[in-house]
Write a structure and sequence with these properties.
Blueprint (H helix, E strand, L loop, with lengths): L1 H16 L3 H13 L6 E3 L5 E3 L1
Antiparallel strand pairs: 1-2
């Protein structure tokens, strides 16, 4: 729960001080939604990397 609290505060601070952050967050979400097992793979530690 602590990590979620930290993320909540960090995201809220970012959005409050940099209004265009919404645009950048949407771009990251769109980019990540396009990742799949044909284009990326998981390393042993769980990191997602390109094929």
């Amino acid at each position: 729960r602590e990590s979620v609290d930290v993320m909540y505060v960090a995201l809220g601070t970012l959005l409050a001080h940099i209004p265009e952050s919404f645009i950048h967050i949407a771009e990251v979400i769109e980019k990540n939604e396009q990742k799949n097992f044909n284009t990326h793979r998981l390393e042993k530690g769980g990191k997602v990397v390109r094929r």
